[in-house]
Amino acid sequence: MKRWLAIAPLLWPALVIGLGDLYALTHYHLSCLIAPQWTVRSLGIVVLVAANLLLALSMAWQIGRTAAITRRLRRLDRLESVHRERLALPELDGVEIRVIPEDVPMLFTVGGWRSVIGVSRWMLDHLDPAELRAAFAHELAHVQHRDGFLMLLLRGLCPWGFGVKGLRSGLEGVAHALELRADAIAASRVADPLAVASALVKVGRASQSWRPAMAFADPSMRLKERVAALMDGAAPPQPPRFWEQPVWMAWGLLSLAAWLGFVGHLCVRGLV
Ligand SMILES: [Zn+2]
Q1: Rounded distance from Cα 16 to ligand 1 centre (Å)
Q2: Core-most of 66, 71, 139, 228, by most CB within 10 Å?
């Protein structure tokens, strides 16, 4: 399925709330917050305020969690240049890579617009050079396509799928599609799908059910399907499209502006 078709349904609840905000901004004028009269209209406002609060809290949670993980990573040592050279991925040059001094399998990309890659000592010690290169090529694909930013936006604007099963599985579907794309890009970049598959299997078998941001091979991430897709040898996906990220950015900023406008209106004039 086209990625746009998978993403659009996840955004409509936030769109409906944004439209509700615009309607409230243009139709309600007098304050009833101090002495509310409980009419159907004021109940509608309460629902709208609750929906806005939910979205604002969800965005704040996603941003705060990402910022906290990024901050913790940035306190760690950078990946030694000897390891960087062995990876032989020149596109990684400007990318920040930090080493987690833990003997557990961890490799993930975290961050909003500017991503950081975290890699554990276990990964550096247990993967052979071809597997390590393939695993980093996978993370590089997430960095270049800003997949973490897209998922942050989607999880923020569609918190836990609003408890709707279809939306929850839609979120998982988009995350899975991004993993498949990163696998395919990595396979094509290192010209070795087997290296990607073998890294996935090795890390997946040793992983625990802990998933920080975009983890490389969490067992819950449908590893069998990913390995099968690599073995099918599908055509490598398109490079990042320059217009996609500004569109997501504009969507996030517009939603934020609508909420702020609504909240500002509440503070200044109140609503009937
Ligand atoms: Zn990934």
Answers
A1: 31
A2: 139
